[in-house]
Amino acid sequence: MKAIVYTEFGPPDVLQLKEVAKPIPKDNEVLVKVYATPVNYGDIVARDFKNISPRKFTMPFPLWLPTRMYFGLRKPKITILGAELAGEIEAVGKDVKRFQEGDQVFGYIGQSMGANAEYLCMPEDGCVAIKPANMTYEEAAAVPYGAIMALSLLRKVNIEPGQKVLVNGASGGIGSAAVQLAKSHFGAEVTGVCSTPRLELVKSLGADKVIDYTKEDFTQSGETYDLIFDILGKSSFSRCKSSLKQNGRYLLASFKMRQLFQMLWTKMVGSKRVICALATDKAEDLIFIKELVEAGKIKSVIDRCYPLEQTAEAHRYYEEGHAQGKVVITLDHNDKT
Fold first, then answer.
1. Do 68 and 12 reside in the same domain of the chain?
2. How many independent structural domains does the chain possess?
3. Percentage of the chain exceeding pLDDT 70
4. Would strands 273-276 and 189-194 be described as parallel, antiparallel, or unpaired?
5. Predicted local distance difference test score (pLDDT) of residue 335
6. Nearest Cα to 258, choosing from 61, 63, 66, 56?
7. Among candidates 157, 174, 155, which has minimal Cα distance to 298?
8. When you count CB atoms within 10 A of the terminal residue's CB, does the N or C end of the chain come out lower?
9. Half-sphere exposure of 148 toward its Cβ, with a 13 Å CA cutoff?
10. Residue 137 and residue 132: Cα distance in Å, rounded?
């Protein structure tokens, strides 16, 4: 089968189209014929992890070395990237009960990756579910990671209908899902913060208000919120504290040791809380997200698609930072329905 392989860390040019062995599913696995897989921030980090210093790493310092060892110290241990996918089940192991051949599915693989290939094996009890009926493969592939992470994190802060939520970083994978979930599922009044080119994108996701951070500092507006969800940690609790209501929460999707200490401190002092949490990826959450998609409460936005052969170009475009929506890699098996 064809796959995009990298055997050294570096820029997009390290990604090469190669023929590799087609995987065979184990007794508890399904073999997925991959039709679409997006480029994510995690792919960029993994591809060039040797240049990701502890300072650039978006998680607490103690996790940097184990993560570096997982991806490889001198050369990549995982040679095929891609953590999200949509496709069709071609074969199932003898113990598989949830799926059958021909099922159209979407899923999230996590750090094990491997979706930049024509075929991929996943455990039956992994984060995989039947694809939403009202989405194309490309649209469905763009959903799992951001929606699962946003749902898992938002559930930790018990949003109530009518509360005011600000999403800082509202146009990315997690941020765009957070805007939609906070608005359509939790019933909040949502403000999204993004850059000028993405204002219309965030409005289209259902945000009640959109702030262009290049022109306005939301912490200086005088508005207060029940929840500020900072996706990339671009702000800080000290700057946001005055923008939080009493008992307000400052939720971080990525954080370092300083924020962990702030979380412990705010549990003891004052009514405003810093919340650092690791999201979990579970099949039942993906099934729930599928239902929300089919109910029209979550959509995906595709900026552009690239064929598998142009994966390096897709990475280059993603890294330029101009994408308004997902950048998706497509695979043509000549039998796609």
1. yes
2. 2
3. 99
4. unpaired
5. 57
6. 61
7. 174
8. C
9. 26
10. 9
Q: Is residue 124, in this structure, part of any structural domain at all?
A: yes
Residue 229 has pLDDT above 80, yes or no: yes
Alpha-carbon distances, residue 294 vs 83, 100, 126, 139 (angstroms): 23, 21, 21, 12
Instruction: For residue 65, tell me if it sits in a domain.
Output: yes
User: What value does the mean pLDDT of the chain take?
Assistant: 93
Strand arrangement of the beta sheet that strand 273-276 belongs to: 209-212, 189-194, 164-168, 225-230, 244-252, 273-276
On whether both 213 and 254 belong to a single domain, the answer is yes
pLDDT at 182 over 50: yes
pTM for this entry: 0.91
- Nearest residue to 298 (alpha-carbon basis) of 144, 93, 128: 144
Report, as an integer, the average pLDDT of 237-260: 90
Q: Give the contacts of 58 (CB within 8 A, at least 6 positions apart).
A: 232, 233, 254, 256
pLDDT of 322: 85
Q: Phi then psi for 12, rounded to 5 degrees? A: -55, -30
How confident is the model at residue 149, as a pLDDT?
93
What is the CATH classification number for the domain harbouring 138?
A: 3.90.180.10
Same domain, 89 and 213: no
Place of tokens 């009960």: 97
Paired residues of 180 in beta bridges = none
Q: By residue range, what is the domain housing residue 308?
A: 2-143+300-330
* pLDDT tier at 336, thresholds 50, 70, 90: very low
b/e code 61-80 from CB counts within 10 Å (16+ = b): eebbeeeeeebbeeebeebb
